[in-house]
């Protein structure tokens, strides 16, 4: 709480905004994942799914930053935009990571094996001169990166990374400094 010109000023709650928009974002991404799963395309990871995930993320963060700005009298600093966007990304990342863990361990326990098989097929197709030893080494590394724990952790890290970039860009667009006399 700040006092300016004999007025009491309370900053908007980033927590409230982050929970609302973070949950909204995670529900949209989970719903899309379920649609992709129902279509039998989970192992292929279609490009349109990634594009829609990005669009959902950019939209949710935009809406959250805009809500913060509106509750802040129309003013927004880059720092407030980053805090809001990262908080939204954190909530969505946590919920998404929990969903990913449940998905790859309970709903579709063969997901990792199927994904590894698709990866192996792509390696053979794209690198026909690869030796068996090279293939085994590459698949060993890939297999370690696709454990449920690593997939979950990478999902959270990716959510925060892209959330930071999107928040920074959107914050620069929406930024409006508070005049010195306020």
Write the layout of secondary structure elements.
Elements: E1 2-4, E2 7-9, H1 14-38, H2 47-71, H3 78-107, H4 111-126, H5 132-145, H6 148-174
Number of helices: 6
Estimate what percentage of residues fall within beta strands. Answer: under 5%
Uncertain regions: pLDDT < 50 for 5+ in a row? none
Structural Rg? 21 Å
Biggest sheet details: 2 strands, antiparallel
**SSE class:** mainly alpha
Judging from the principal axes of the Cα atoms, what is the shape?
A: elongated
Q: Give the strand order, joined by hyphens, for the main sheet.
A: 1-2
Helix proportion range: over 70%
- Round the mean pLDDT to the nearest integer and report it: 88
The ordered H/E elements are EEHHHHHH
- Measured between the Cα atoms of the first and last residue, the distance is 14 Å
Please give the number of β-strands: 2
Summed up, what is this model?
With 182 residues, the protein is mainly alpha-helical. It is built from 6 helices and 2 strands; from the N terminus they run ββαααααα.
Detailed description of the structure:
With 182 residues, the chain is mostly helical. Helix content is 75%, strand content 3%. The protein has six helices and two strands; from the N terminus they run E-E-H-H-H-H-H-H. A two-stranded antiparallel sheet has the order 1-2. Helix 1 runs antiparallel to helix 2 and helix 2 packs across helix 3. The longest helix has 30 residues.
């Amino acid at each position: 709480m700040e006092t300016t010109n004999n007025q009491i000023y309370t900053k908007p709650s980033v927590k409230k905004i982050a929970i609302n928009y973070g949950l909204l974002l995670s529900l949209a991404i989970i719903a899309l994942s379920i649609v992709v799963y129902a279509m039998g395309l989970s192992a292929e990871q279609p490009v349109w799914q990634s594009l829609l995930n990005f669009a959902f993320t950019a939209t949710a963060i935009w809406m959250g930053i805009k809500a913060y700005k509106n509750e802040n009298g129309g003013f927004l600093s880059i720092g407030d935009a980053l805090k809001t966007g990262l908080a939204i990304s954190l909530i969505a990342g946590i919920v998404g990571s929990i969903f990913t863990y449940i998905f790859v361990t309970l709903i579709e326990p063969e997901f990792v094996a199927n994904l590894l098989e698709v990866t192996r097929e792509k390696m053979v197709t794209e690198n026909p001169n690869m030796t068996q030893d090279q293939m085994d080494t590459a698949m060993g590394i890939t297999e370690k990166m696709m454990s449920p724990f690593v997939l979950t952790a990478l999902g959270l890290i990716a959510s925060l990374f892209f959330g930071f970039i999107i928040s920074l860009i959107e914050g620069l667009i929406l930024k409006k400094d508070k005049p010195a006399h306020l």
